[in-house]
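ARCHIVE CARD
CATEGORY: sequence design from structure
SOURCE FIELD: tokenized fold
FIELD CONTENT:
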């Protein structure tokens, strides 16, 4: 596992603070170790290709996403080990309940 500096962790959290990037990362987490093709992500998020490219590049830059070219397909993978340890529980809790109406008390 990679040890992050405070600055790196802050940069990752800042990038996940945007709804489109959080949704994108959520899709990649749910895709698992097999990742997902960019075209599939674009379809699921319903965003223009240039917008998706922008958001993906921001996530790649901070180490949250890796991209691999497979012929004509660009596949994206969530980088699980780059998440700060102390935020993992809260992050995965958020991923599990994202989109569901819950009060703060029911998350504990």
């Amino acid at each position: 596992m990679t040890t992050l500096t405070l600055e790196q962790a802050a940069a990752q959290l800042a990038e996940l603070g945007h709804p489109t990037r959080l949704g994108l990362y959520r899709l990649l987490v749910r895709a698992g170790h097999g990742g997902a093709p960019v075209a599939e992500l674009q379809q699921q998020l319903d965003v223009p290709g240039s917008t998706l490219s922008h958001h993906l590049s921001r996530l790649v830059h901070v180490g949250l996403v890796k991209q691999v070219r497979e012929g004509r397909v660009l596949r994206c993978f969530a980088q699980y080990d780059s998440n700060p340890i102390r935020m993992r529980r809260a992050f995965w809790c958020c991923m599990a309940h994202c989109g569901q109406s819950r009060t703060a008390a029911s998350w504990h």
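CARD ANNOTATION: The two ends are 26 Å apart (CA to CA). Residues 6-97 form a domain with the Arc Repressor Mutant, subunit A fold (CATH 1.10.10.10).
SHELF: design records, drawer C
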